[in-house]
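Worked example

This section walks through a single chain of length 188. The input is the sequence exactly as stored; nothing has been trimmed or padded.
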Amino acid sequence: MNKAFVKETTDGSDEESLPPSLQLPPGNKNYMTPRGYQALCVELDGLLRVERPKIVETVAWAASNGDRSENGDYIYGKKRLREIDRRVRFLTKRIDGAEVIDPSARQKSDQVFFGATVTIRDANDDDGDTPEQVWQIVGIDEADASGGKISWVSPLARALLKAREGDVVRFMSPSGTREVEILAVRYE
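Given that input, the structure is written out below as tokens.
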């Protein structure tokens, strides 16, 4: 395919193509824990030192075989190189704009801030039928709901931020408005 018909973004607008859950709110910093920052750095290093050189070698070999229009290795390799380069630009931008906050360095506090690990339960559960939930408030790029980590821009995290142990907070969940009670706050 002719390059004239292929749209490649080089102006850094990769952020706009992200799902809303991964976009930084306008004017906000990219907060991260040290673990999340390290994970992005490791991924970037792996792409630059291992994966990209391997694909470049494959593309060079495929190009030397002659006709590129029907050369699957060449076509796939070029496509993969564009994907890698896009991811490298994204990671570089996120790492450069990161503000690393170490939750373990925070003084003992009962108030919820970035990096806090918060234990909650439904406020309407007087008889203790629903289990307690434990969530750590982390950066957008390190959120993993199955691992108990939620992004600081999620509705639950926004409701929890600046609240204290014993407070009941209200937030909008996919199932409607919920109220949860904060049972414990710790920084690890």
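What to look for: Residues 14 and 90 are 7 Å apart (CA to CA).
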